[in-house]
Amino acid sequence: MNLEDRVAVVTGGASGLGFAVAQRLAAQGATVIITDIDQAAGSQASKQLDATFVAHDVADETSWQNLCQVVRQKFGPLNVLVNNAGVVAKAEAADPEHQSLAEWHRLFAVNSDGVFLGCKTAIGAMREAGGGAIINVSSVAALLATPFGTAYGATKAVVAHLTRTVAQYCAREKLDVRCNSIHPGDIRTPLWDQWATGLATERGVTFEAIVAEFEGMIPTGRMTTPEDIAASVAFLASDEARQINGAQIVVDGGFVSCNTYALTTSGGPLDPHRSFPASDGVSLVHPPSGDTSGKEPAR
Ligand SMILES: NC(=O)c1ccc[n+]([C@@H]2O[C@H](COP(=O)([O-])OP(=O)(O)OC[C@H]3O[C@@H](n4cnc5c(N)ncnc54)[C@H](O)[C@@H]3O)[C@@H](O)[C@H]2O)c1
Question: What is its EC number (predicted)?
Answer without folding.
Answer: 1.1.1.-
